[in-house]
Automatic annotation (TrEMBL):
The keyword Iron does not apply. Coiled coil: none annotated. This is Dihydroorotase. It holds the Pfam family DHOase. It comes from the Bacteria. One of its GO terms (biological process) is pyrimidine nucleotide biosynthetic process. Residues 53-234 form the Dihydroorotase catalytic domain. It comes from Halopseudomonas pachastrellae. GO terms for molecular function: allantoinase activity; dihydroorotase activity; metal ion binding. The lineage of its organism: Bacteria, Pseudomonadati, Pseudomonadota, Gammaproteobacteria, Pseudomonadales.
Amino acid sequence: MRLTIEGARVIDPASQFDEITDLHIAAGHIQAIGAAPEGFTPNQRIDARGLIACPGLVDLNVALREPGYSRKGNIASETRAAAAGGVTTLCCPPDTRPVLDTPAVAELILDRSQAAGNARVLPIGALTKGLEGEQLSELVALRDAGCVAFTQGLTPMGGNRILRRALEYAATFDLTIIFTPQDADLAEGGMAHEGPTASRLGLVGIPESAETVALARDLLLIEQTGVRAHFSGLTSARAMDMLADAQARGLPVTADVAAYQLLLCDEDLVGFSSQLHVMPPLRSAADRRALREAVQSGVVQAIASHHRPHEAEAKRVPFAASAPGISSVEILLPLALTLVADGLLELPAALSRVTSGPANALGLPAGIGQLQLGGAADITLFDPAQACEIGRNWLSRGSNCPFIGQGAPAAVTHTLHGGKLVYQLT
């Protein structure tokens, strides 16, 4: 298959390329940008005048729910939803059933994602067996099976000594550890940000210190062990200050924030909508403002969906009894583009936060998150002038999304993964 994308505004944040031109694709790779190679005759042409072509989006946190939670989603359904959102590379967390703590589970996920063919799936392995925080998983074997990083998620370690030993071991083999800092004792029983809104609604609060106390410990251990580290889903203004300070001191730490944290805050909980129950929780308007400023400054290099699909019954209950999480991989791009509409970022900078930024943060293989001659043709085309209604063509098995029915500032029109057209807006 030979394909030419004609007349798009091609933006590649990694190389700072931004021109209206053509893209020529053959054998799943980008053959040329601009003039076609000599003798190149496409089998298919896409008229992309008025559209923007960028690298396929890279999402660092997408729960695929398989194996073990098929009522919520599966690899085929959620990678299909990712493709509809322009996501061509995604990392899936290890909280499956069984937990992703053995090469066999990693290989199952990779085999099924390759069979689906919608997106490149990069597994994140469990740091400890069963995510129980006591005994290290076979990290090197998991790396060799395809895991690109390791995490405990929100599940606590058995103690600081175990965590330190885990980080020392990971540093020895140059493995990346992903932290989602939350002190289990301080957060116990909580479901919303501790503050006036939670008090008024009668919801048990989770203090900012649940994040910052754990973050302070993690930063100290990272500095001591030299492990490669990434912070996922940070939520508070104080955490942004601590992260910026660590980076200023030369600590090589990166971070992402959940896209929905840039638009929502705890004041939105006044209607007790279970669709807004997330973990870590939505924090204050001041925290949201600090997250947006950190994305603007580059302290936070990546915006991720933190996609957590649920069956309807998991959300059709009172707020306190509902399962936390938002189905959001399909709307990663429009949520990120709201920062452009709000004047916070220029378009190339916003696109970098969902392409080259996340790829660089985790040190993903060369070519991911960028348009590279000879590289894989992972390309997203979107129409910046076509407003659309979120949810109209929803593909995720989970419809637990508070943005459904709202307008989006742009529409993904085509997604190519390895030169194959895996999504086209109809």
